[in-house]
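Fold sample X.
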Amino acid sequence: MSNQSFKSWYQSGKPFIWLNAGALTISLVAVVGLLALIAVRGLSHFWPADVMSVSYSEPDTEVTTLIGERVDTEVVPVERLGSDYPLAEGQVSATRYLLKVGNRDQFGLDFRWINADWMGEVTYPEDIVAVERREWGHFYGYLSRVLENGEVVAEGEAAWPALIERLERSNHLVGEIKHIEKIEIGKVNQVLENQRLAEKRLQMDGVPAGDPAYAEIEAEREIQKQKYADLLDELGALNQGLNRDSIVMTMADGREVTIRLSKVVHAFMPNAMSRLDKLQHYFGEIWKFVSGEPREANTEGGIFPAIFGTVMMVIIMSILVTPFGVVAAIYLKEYAKQGFITRTIRIAVNNLAGVPSIVYGVFGLGFFVYFLGGSIDEIFFQAKLPAPTFGAPGLMWASLTLAILTVPVVIVATEEGLSRIPRAMREGSLALGATKAETLWRTVVPMAAPAMMTGLILAVARAAGEVAPLMMVGVVKLAPALAVDTIAPYLHLDRQFMHLGFHIYDVGFQSPNVEAARPLVYATAFLLVLIIVVLNLTAIGIRNRLRENFKASDN
């Protein structure tokens, strides 16, 4: 290519087109690759992998048998294996496997690295049973006997059908116990607390002790106490029936371990499962992960409370930030006198978008929680003091803090949308006799609605992933109850809540069992991205509908 043709090609702008296209392609590949990595690492955790039985002998030790899932493989230099490692001539590296051996209550750890050179015969017996427990993680072994009140009711080939039948009964009883403890007893405790507060209010108002109001409160209290006693009796009967059944499992070293079915969530034989059975098990485990509650310091069980808390917080934040941001943008663009003060306000709004999120958390803790929440408690919840109601971190303060954090985005996007509306539209409306307010709310604002939705989309995308400010104003490791339940007033904005972003931080960096937590970090991260995508697609769908409606009315 001659210099003249190269100069002409350069001046045509095609190099920059190809440069932008290449940068966009690289970005898309990076994003898709990252999402694929997160999805594969996270979702593969729920697949029922085959469980191996391997004879294993370290130098100067007896041969032992190990049972477990192979979850990772790595090649390491022999220097990392110690001076006792037997080396072949010229060997510079060795292969080792990470085995999930489970049985943490027996071994102390769920995972163990084993060297390939010390492994013997590897088999996959079909009668190996994997037991998912409510405590101590998975248990791997062979099912020996099924017990009822300590007596053998099934063994051998008959043990497995008996286990499945009794496990269904046990899980049903566990569900009934949880319902009574969380719902029924929760309602009774709420009524008792309301009665206590009503009595305290009477005392604060100076009502004498002999007033009939005290007698009414005491009568209702006795009724609730009797309900509570009846529920405790029912719980005692259910717990007695729950502790009836147990199983005896034989470990790889021949030791027998008795496990109560009340501590078992699920049991399956992975090596004997067909591809269809594994597929059904896989989707069942994903559903339990999405709909269940966390266990074992968040390294086991599900993450539904975190999903619910994240979505609820984003919804409340959106309801709060949209009107504030839109009204502020309309005032700055349509009503405020354009001058030094207005320009200063715009600069401040733009700068607020760059303030570190932790600063908003400190502001929310100081202003919303301590000042505003404390004042609300002093005025409306004096009977509960010194126990705080709104003077403590909760869902409402977290949503308000994120609303303050994201309001600059909504303001800027709305102003941009208002600026793109032709001046002729405003003048035409005024010429037809409409007032400025009518022109604004019937012509200008509907045309700028897609821009407002764009601001909301950006706000949702940022708020859903924020963690730092939420740690100060409402998010906790484990929330005892959801913010929405069947107890009046049904929506409890004062309660603390769980969040997917904080859950990722907690499981990834605060977990005592790192190897068990790693796949859950990937799965939770993938779910958080998926929720953000769904929320954004919903907002985009609303924005597109608004655009179509405006085009239809314009035609």
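Fold sample Y, listed below.
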Amino acid sequence: MTPAITDADALLAGLDEQQRQVATALNGAVCVLAGAGTGKTRAITHRIAYGVATGVYPPKRVMALTFTSRAASELRTRLAALGASGVAARTFHSAALAQLNYFWPRLLDAVAPSVLDKKARLVAQAAETLHLRLEPAALKDAAAEIEFRKTSALSLAEYAERAGERPLPDGVDLDRMVALQERYEVLKDERRMIDFEDVLLATAGMITSEPQVATEVREQYRFFTVDEYQDVSPAQQLLLDAWLGERSDVCVVGDASQTIYSFAGARAEYLLRFGERPGGATVVRLEQNYRSVDQVVQTANTLMQGRRGALVLSAVRRPTGAREPAVQLRRYASDLDEAAGIAADISALIAAGTPASQIAVLHRINSQSALLEQAFADAKVPVRTRGSLRFFDQPVVKQALLLLRGAAAARLEEPLFKSVSDVLRELGHTHHAPAGPGEQRTRWELLDALATLVEQAPAGATLQDFVTDLVERAAAQHEPAVEAVTLATLHAAKGLEWPVVFLPGLADGLLPISYATTPAAIEEERRLLYVGLTRARDRLRLSFAATGANRAGERRPSRFLAELRLP
């Protein structure tokens, strides 16, 4: 085990000038605008460790906050290596829940309510009492609406005023959505349960309404650091304000260009306006990119040029004598050709010595993985998925395969397309996609991907032939692979990096996604592409297909590609 660094000067030795500014700005409000690959985690962990080493920060009075358990664990590991192992590094929810469980019995002389693991079941019971019949996907989307309202710290009346801006689950109008949420809250209270959003709101309320609780909490934690601050929600900001009280010792770190969770309540505005807070703030910009070669960095800069809060990155790394451009754009005739072309390129890279684990293929929606997974299996490219299930592991796909097997056993004498279409309709597939994002849309896209596979079947194929082919595909894609290419959605790729990154499906309707119809939604799609671009270290391969897998319906290249001006 590497011994911890405890010498204050040694903590600053390996930092660049901008990172050193962050590490030595120990008091008051500090805002770190940190671009992709600029070493933000290094800067903030050295800042905390430097504060501990110089005696400015008692370690037990420091709280480092982030959004995932994985990120919190990484912070703890890095801080321990830098001699700051006594610092608390937690998610907002875990810190709030610990305080709620501690203070609730003292205030109310009762055990704190249990935390509801998943909302959908209770939402279903609430819907039943209102005589609402909702499919499982619609129930999940209704649960997501509840999460959005509470994460946004909106009352039901405030939500009703704003709900017109959001697509509601199929079969639920605004009045029913409000009634469903009211009934959900009643059932939850009757069962003495709280949900994850309540944990934040109740803890903030407890601190602001109970002076003794506020005193104890603020005596325990004095110095705060918030990573990924562009993703903070109004509910989390309320809690952070409650923790701080009238104090200003908080360091926030983020990149407005990587705000990709607005649909879940994230507000980049808190980051963008942090320097305007009363009393001002020290603002430091990290713009030296250590991750990517120059052409990748310049491509990312071009995409975000002129956008509010965008940082202008400069690359420290240079290409290592590669004969081909670091960034390439390829056009394919169809989705099928695109998947096969990417698989062939990856096979060639692996054959030339690139480890499979150093390659990633990042796509916009889960259903895109169906053709990619099959192309990889055909090319014998090992693959692992990240952030979502493989195509044939998706519940609705497994359900469809089960029904198709049953239909095949019945030996139906009808065209293959009709047999499969009947099964897909039974599962809720329609000719037109649901209007907005969410579980219903995801389910539709996965079923539609199965319909696309039908179009690839050989002429004269029977339903039994098709089912046998699907079973073989599923089996081929479940072989264990230690050294494997990563297949992930763009959302799941945030915070990660690979030497080689492929970004397929860069066509209007996929990126930006078809339901992104407002200027704000289009800008969120832009930021999502920016996250994808900045995951690549050495090589970036962009592509789009002129048509779908069945070569029907001409597509336009993503409007973002024209801005990049790639050959």
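Sample Y note: The first strand starts at residue 30 and ends at 34.
Also: DSSP finds 23 helices and 16 strands in the chain.
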